[in-house]
């Protein structure tokens, strides 16, 4: 049994590396000769291709519930359960992500993520918040779906949603569209790694555990689109979106 788990993990690592290398060169070449915003759109498309392949290799089974509208220029909002959310949401939409800036310097993975043309977020520098908000607004104005996790960190997914930070909602224009989503990871056997990555669990140890799983089912519930109300501030908007997502969470809490 231990040997089979080890071989499964190694096989997934090798396949992920091969899949990534296979895409990196054509992706990089296709981005070289484009202006900035066409490059951002192409990067979001490449991110979708990579995440779909990576989800298949790692056994991430994304089950969508609800209508999937055209996401062009839409602010996608979801609860956050860990790095596997990237595979779940990226397989549904051509998304521009907003990862933490430290990832940019990770070996191999940093250049791979950079091909998706993300907005790198330096959480240690709150003074840059307005610059990020401006980049978010431009992203939506150019019709590129933008994904944010307003909880600001990941949770175990079993105790509701964390409080929302309102900063991402400042990017939304008055006529902007919000597509809220609520995700659940199906419970894994007691002797297996949980899909959610939260708390102080070391990243390499969690990835090693996840790679040993045959399948990780992620249920994504897509809520109806929401729009800002006249005169509504970003904090009120963030709270209204969170309330709608909590109601959806409560309806499906038995999944966790």
What is the element layout, followed by pairings?
Elements lengths: L1 H31 L3 H23 L1 E6 L8 E5 L5 H7 L18 H6 L14 H13 L4 E3 L28 E9 L17 H9 L4 E7 L11 H18 L5
Parallel strand pairs: 1-5, 2-3, 2-4
Antiparallel strand pairs: 4-5
Helix pairs in contact: 1-2, 2-3
Uncertain residue ranges? none
**Hey, roughly how much beta strand do the residues contain?**
5-15%
Order of helices and strands: HHEEHHHEEHEH
In DSSP terms (H or I, runs of 4 or more residues), the helix count works out at 7
Rg value: 18 Å
First-last Cα distance = 27 Å
Spatial shape: globular
The secondary-structure class comes to alpha/beta
Largest β sheet strand count, sense and barrel closure: 5 strands, mixed
Strand order of the largest sheet: 1-5-4-2-3
Number of strands: 5
Mean pLDDT: 89
- Percent helix, as a range, is 40-55%
Descriptive labels:
single chain, 256 residues, alpha/beta, five-stranded mixed sheet, 7 helices
Describe this structure in words.
The chain is an alpha/beta fold and 256 residues long. The protein is built from 7 helices and 5 strands, in the order ααββαααββαβα. α1 (2-32) runs antiparallel to α2 (36-58) and α2 (36-58) packs across α3. It is globular, with a radius of gyration of 18 Å. The mean pLDDT is 89.
Give a nutshell description of this structure:
The protein has 7 helices and 5 strands.
